[in-house]
Amino acid sequence: MSEVIENKELKLSTLKKRSDFLRVAAARQKWISPTVIIQTSKKPTPEGGDIRVGYTASKKVGNAVFRNKAKRRLREAVKQVLISGAKKDHDYVLIARREISERSFKELIRDLKWSLKRLHDNSGKKRGEAN
Q1: Which of 68, 72, 73, 87 is the 20 to 30 Å CA partner of 98?
Q2: From residue 15, how far is each of 19, 21, 56, 116 by CA, in Å?
Q3: How far is CA 7 from CA 49, 74, 106, in A?
């Protein structure tokens, strides 16, 4: 909770339009972990310093109850992790994977932190490219 207080200038907004989800997917910057796939792209017009996040859970995750639970878990994990680990003026799409219901919340947070770190460390580099 202290992370939220320290970063009051950052706000989390939710992506709602399909065109935003498609734009983030077209950027082709993603990281895959056992519980979640994170896609990111820069905003087309940087307005304010907020971070926009979209959540997706397909039928592969399970029925409606499991999909809603997966999205609730993702929203709570984002509140704890994304404020401190995300870049300003970026959009993120989090796609739940089937394993999200089998893992503990601690492991979900660990996967999310690891994915963000790897995603931003590799931004602008091609696979196999040296420093």
Answers
A1: 87
A2: 10, 7, 11, 18
A3: 11, 20, 22
Angle at CA 101, nearest 5°, toward 97 and 103? 95
Rounded to 5°, the CA angle 24-43-59 comes to: 25
Q: How many CB atoms lie within 10 A of CB 4?
A: 13
CATH number of the CATH domain containing 61? 3.30.230.10
Q: Is 46 helix (H, G, I), strand (E, B) or coil?
A: coil
In a domain, 90, yes or no: yes
| pLDDT tens-digit map of 72-106 | 999 999 888 877 777 777 889 999 999 988 889 99
* Backbone φ and ψ of 95, nearest 5°: -110, 120
In the chain, how many domains are there? 1
